[in-house]
Amino acid sequence: MSSDGRAYPLDAWRITEGRFDRSMASRNETIFTLANGNLGMRGNFEEGFCTVSRGTYINGFYEETPIVYGETAFGYAKNRQVMLNVADAKVMRLTVDGEPFDLGSGTILSYERTLDLSRGELLREVRWSSPAGRRVAVRIRRIVSLARRDTAAIDYEVAADGNDLQIEIVSAIEGSVENQAGRDDPRIGTRSNSRMLTTIFREAGGLDGLLVQKTPVTHMALACAMTHSYAHSSGAGPQVRTVSRAADAGESASVTVRTEIASGDSFRLTKFISYRTTKELAEEGLVDGARGSVEEARAVGFTVLEEEQVREVRRFWASADVEVGGDEAIQQGVRYNLFSLLQSAGRDGRTSVAAKGLSGEGYEGHYFWDTEIYVLPFFIYTQPEIARSLLRYRLGILDKARARAAEMGQKGALFPWRTIGGEECSPYYPAGSAQYHINADIVFALQKYLNASADRGLLAEGGAEMIFETARLWADLGDWLPERGDARPKPSGAAGGLRFYINEVTGPDEYTALVNNNVYTNLMAELNLRAAAALADRLRREEPAELDRVARRILLADEEIEEWRRAADRMYIPYDRERGIAAQDDAFLHRARWDFEGVPRDKYPLLLHFHPLVIYRYQVLKQPDVVLAQVLRGDRFTTAEKKRNFDYYDPLTTGDSSLSPCIQSVAASELGYVEKAYEYFMRTARMDLDDVNGNVADGFHCAAMAGTWISLIYGFAGMRDYNGRLSFDPRLPKAWSHLRFALRYRGAAISVSATKDEVVYDLDPGEANGAAAVTIEHRGRELLLEAGRPARVSLLPLLECVIFDLDGVITDTAELHFRAWKRIADELAIPFDRSFNERLKGVGRLESLELILEHGGKALPHPEKLAVAERKNGYYRELVATITPENLLPGILELLTALEASGIRRAIASVSHNVWEVVERLQISRVIDLIVDPSRIAKGKPDPEVFMTAADALRIPPENCAGIEDAQAGIDAIAAARMFSVGIGSELTGADWTLPDTASLSLELLLERFASHRTGRG
Amino acid sequence: MSSDGRAYPLDAWRITEGRFDRSMASRNETIFTLANGNLGMRGNFEEGFCTVSRGTYINGFYEETPIVYGETAFGYAKNRQVMLNVADAKVMRLTVDGEPFDLGSGTILSYERTLDLSRGELLREVRWSSPAGRRVAVRIRRIVSLARRDTAAIDYEVAADGNDLQIEIVSAIEGSVENQAGRDDPRIGTRSNSRMLTTIFREAGGLDGLLVQKTPVTHMALACAMTHSYAHSSGAGPQVRTVSRAADAGESASVTVRTEIASGDSFRLTKFISYRTTKELAEEGLVDGARGSVEEARAVGFTVLEEEQVREVRRFWASADVEVGGDEAIQQGVRYNLFSLLQSAGRDGRTSVAAKGLSGEGYEGHYFWDTEIYVLPFFIYTQPEIARSLLRYRLGILDKARARAAEMGQKGALFPWRTIGGEECSPYYPAGSAQYHINADIVFALQKYLNASADRGLLAEGGAEMIFETARLWADLGDWLPERGDARPKPSGAAGGLRFYINEVTGPDEYTALVNNNVYTNLMAELNLRAAAALADRLRREEPAELDRVARRILLADEEIEEWRRAADRMYIPYDRERGIAAQDDAFLHRARWDFEGVPRDKYPLLLHFHPLVIYRYQVLKQPDVVLAQVLRGDRFTTAEKKRNFDYYDPLTTGDSSLSPCIQSVAASELGYVEKAYEYFMRTARMDLDDVNGNVADGFHCAAMAGTWISLIYGFAGMRDYNGRLSFDPRLPKAWSHLRFALRYRGAAISVSATKDEVVYDLDPGEANGAAAVTIEHRGRELLLEAGRPARVSLLPLLECVIFDLDGVITDTAELHFRAWKRIADELAIPFDRSFNERLKGVGRLESLELILEHGGKALPHPEKLAVAERKNGYYRELVATITPENLLPGILELLTALEASGIRRAIASVSHNVWEVVERLQISRVIDLIVDPSRIAKGKPDPEVFMTAADALRIPPENCAGIEDAQAGIDAIAAARMFSVGIGSELTGADWTLPDTASLSLELLLERFASHRTGRG
Fold first, then answer.
1. pTM, 2 dp
2. ipTM (interface predicted TM)
């Protein structure tokens, strides 16, 4: 570790291991992985010393073995698929004057290993003295070529350091590798004892070697070839003797090179490696294919391979880089993570992104929803070609998804929760196959791609079929059942007795399984159904022949399309009216809260310490489903709901999943919880570099790596892409000087450069047919971006809106209420005076009546109470009818007029049911932009909803709003809404500015106080 | 098969296979099983021909192997336990003049195999001609001794039939048997490939042989010994030569006997067998133990063993027999099932009843709740010694249950869902470990035993600890959460905001898993908690030192006891107010109904054709939890609720479980669904003899066998034992002439003999300190039974109660309602006349107002509607205040008076809220026994609840009630309540007797019509 407690010194472009530390070996094997989306090599030392898990992986190259169940049942996933650890071609064992070069012996004089993120190269430089005192300097460069998918190369240079040396290098391909045995951790995979890959052919000759391996069940085969070139620094140099050998032991092919190096001279052996598989070639072509590749690589030489690599890496950073000013740790984490994503993503249309990329065997190399929900946004907006390829993988397994749906008794297509080849491989269905949401996740990503790229080719390639078949699954899976009391208020679509329910599924949260109406699942299914109906509509309008073709292929009836729309319109979204929050599912809020206080930290992750029945029984989350839903489908929630949801669910989230912190960070950013957003972001940005979860040895956390980009772009830059419109709302953490990135959008590039004070948006139409102008939104305002005309927007605080309470701020209706209650009390023969009236302030109508009855020692049956309360309202409304502009409180009209003149919006946020009539009678309607009345909110003050609803409706960020209130609950509500609060009255606490009365209010003072609060004390 | 399509001819005491049928071989291997609760032998032929599964089992003798999971998790059951198929000592291979005796060759001249239920013996008699034409008569008797737990004997007699014969009999113990491999059917068990039992020693000499086997993991060992005696019918006879041999091949010990038999003579070889195990002896004592047993058996001889057997069997039938007159098939099924239970039940205090007894390997020989809920009632009431022993098995594994609770993160003890040795062995926790109800099932059975036996010894032996520790589990498992709207009305206990909920469990119904508040689980947990609190109270009062001892042992605090009571009092029971039924769990009624119409019969059992996710998603049942709950805890439901529950849930029950029909039969009996009760009973009574489920080859269905007794005693005899009081309500199916049985109760015997016309209860105090008098109930009436004074009660129909509707039968309040509504309509300025008033008949108050408003084209806000409806009621009550006895309808007072004089009860069942006042003002209170008003019911007419509630309250069976009504809904309600219905008015349909007006009513006519209806047309 370096002195600041970090494993690697902070450097924007380099990950450097500055000294050899055996205890870091397994971790560094992952960290120094090189891969190109097809071929991955863990960072094992070529010489073989200090190896924990040597790994070489080919994306999508797997074997199948039957899953053994304790007790099986119909429809269970039949086979396990395992991405194979294939023949190891990294091997180059150096012997120096008869002593093996091994850092476990002798003396290390200097040591440095660096992954260069700007070059895509791994470099190791060691000076070492052998046990017998022979000194050698070794410099090894390794490339897994981004330009040539099957090719890797290792340049191994040995210098004699003050002594002449006899050296030997055995360069081999070793086939006797195996996948690791599993441990009792479901995140890794279960032990498989049988050998899954056998070496069926090996050959060596001259500087060449070759090995063929094959699987018994999937019949996949690969040829791994190597060849070499060498040179002495001294030109011709001493003689080089080579021996090649194909051995049964170790199933290896090797080339042994022996030579002498004079002191001060050096010798370079360059190894060219190729892996070709039956995924791309016929089996009989493998050997020639692999030989051809290594020959070609040797022909161009290592330097050219290096140049190609740098070119590819530069191209990547040109569109993918995110610059974070002022935080080196973040900057390094961001670059490392983005580069690792590039390394991990398949790009041949037949592979995806394994949960751990090509860096390890965790999760058996399976593809999950991680690709679509976490990884794809990054590629869609920076490398659309890779995004397209990843989506084509899903199109390729559509037939298998159809077969799975049929097996599960459903129509349409059901994508597997985890798979490599396309078949469902979940050995534990409650947290696997039950996650039907995978279907909608895929369509969600496809929709996002189609919108950002404007490329419709994928639709004709099977995309349309996929959208229709997944929608079919939902329409068949769900059930039409009677409306229940606990639905979200105001469902969209026509009224009626039936709603669409989706029962017995598991959402992303794996600490809650087999539930009814998981909010994430239902919202995503709604999107899937709506997307299918909308696509059918568009095709019918624009490409009727294409719709016809697809409909004939999949026997699609018009009624189905209508059913999709109806199911989407009437989708049931569980909601808790009392708390005003989304319910994670029908039952979640009826469970007890997990004992967070009583369960010690070492019992986390819970899944390793508690039986699933225990975990499922409580309100405790692995993944925060509601928060994820409000990030992905933010347009289906009000800001007030989002705040309440986050406030409720975030404390229930354990941090046991690497997929959560980025989502929590985005949600926190949106709600202005900047510190929290930063804290969660830190965990995702440096998850692997800092080994936050302690298991980086098992491989990358690809979803968390992509989550870094999501946190930056969706979180701190506030980017959203709902309904095909890009919008931004940048909010930088205090420590950052700036945030810069670019997005590919409809062929063009939009660059965004934000500081705390301003943001600049710039459009580059790119080379080809990129859009020349794009309309985006910044904080709710439209901006037309045109090439060559950067849009510069201030982020400084600015008072844009003032939101007034009604009673006690604009007018004093308290007197009218007193008189109405007095009349009722007289009728009931209950004594009533102004002092008792004080007890009714801020109390609802029915509750007020109950207080009065209690005061008078009387009781009424409930219906009569309702009638009396109604009568009181009648009396009050009679009095309201007497209101005139005279009743405006002092200074208010002047303030409203001044605000209007300055272009500052004016809203009233009131929980009074008579607000409209009062405003009308006060004759101030023409200076009020917006009235939020109780019918528009679920929770009254001190919940901030009434103020947040006003800001939402006017599309003004809360930081640029002020609220004026005369009641404590109102001040608290304004504060919770993160607005500038103005308190009228001397007994209020916590207001940003307190005044004795409305007469003291003026625009000038308000602007002054607002500015000093926002810049100075804020 | 015999000519009537049955496999075995109907015979009250014998199961006979009349001809040799190879296709019946595997089925008969189970059917002709002999066992004694410790040692079981399938009905394989001694000679080994035609064997499908040869099986020999010792109760509780098992091996463990690790359970392999597709994906494992914390707390999963670790090991599988398998009851072992042990060394086969049945083997006796006969050779006749060099030809093997094999019914697959030669000619069968006659064949009969009989299981004699009155003797406990299996007899086979065969006359056979060999392929070479040698004729032989063979007679084989087999006994597994009920008097000697380790001993079996086979008497093998060979007669030369018209020719001299050279015979050889190889009598062996063969150790090379194995458990069957599993199939893909979770009801059987999963394949285990390793050999679980190895033969470690074999020995033979003279007429003796011996074999020792041992398991590698559980280290259980057994010694199986044999010895022989022989005799010629001709006295001394020809020479007998014997050879004994211990062979590695087949891991066998054998004795070969050769002799000659002259034509007409016969030769008997009698084999004595013993199995001794380390369950009872130290390993070093096994060999001597087994040898000693067989020597002893040989010393007494086969005839004495037979006599002992007959004595034991007679003793069993003396207390266990149930005589069903008039139905031979039932009688045979009943006897076979009860005898099989005797054979299956462990009685050493360390074993229980495997799901398939000792007859096969289905369910791996595991013990489930089947023992406590299904099997124990039979033993408790007929063989209390065996019941006691079965309960002691649970006490013996209490420590393991404590350890399991701790592993599951809970306090107290948690019994395993399936086990042999006491450890949880469920490989699929959603339908295994999640069935926490097993805890309460055990306590339920213990309570039942304690009450019926009055034996308290078990409490001191650990029973008290068990009741406390299981209660502890419930108290810790459940959660205190706020009251919800969907609770059952009128919870017992104090009012308050919190209820006790039990989340994330599975009830008995395995087609619904991992639910919240399963009604069966919660009701049984309530019982468990209450039993624990009550026990603590009793001990504190009566045996404070004992309470102290237990409390110190398990660190029991007084507060815990209070908590148990509170949890029981406030237990949440999910209820559907709209339907008026118990909800199986929180979510069940929010699922869609299974598509019973669309899914073909060959897709059942569903578990073999649909993924669990599909099954769990729907309202479809394997076990009917609600119906089971209302059978076991019938005192917690009203009869009306039971009827609605049964009507709702019975059609959802698939018949996929052998545990359901008996329960459905009992519930149907109670509700008077006699045909249905009989139909379900038939399936349970002859399940194995008729191979109803097609899998009898895998072994007995012990729970269904015991269900036969439950159906008879709890169903047709209507026995209940709630709260320690025996009650009866016999209702015989049409086909039966009588039903006779006896119950052991507190040391005495109560015999019950019922015909359709009468029932006789008789008490026999027995030999020892049996109760000399017992109070029982017959149809709600107490009966004091005294020794020597049989109580004889008529079952003929008898009018015991008349239940009157109020409006239109006793008085005409319709006019008053008209006048009140008229006044309201006038106030609202809406036209209203008598013709419109007709539309309001039978319509509730608020709905009536809505009709009037609609009629007048007016609308009112909801609270005002409530107020107006209240006002109407005020007007109506003013009018009610004017009612006098003059308003009684003609003939009513006379009828009420005549009924009173005849001792026939009089009730009013009205949905009018003013019924009490009206009755008061009519001055008929003194002749009315009971008024049921709307506050006491959940559903109005035509639901029968209001009438059933009246009958329930008066404790009169509905058949003995008449109801009088003037509205169609009322007539329908009376019919649904199965009462005699009297209709007043000419437009009514479906009434049993219709009159134009009340003036035509008279007691004389009513009695006449009732009698003719019940006896003649009924």
1. 0.93
2. 0.92
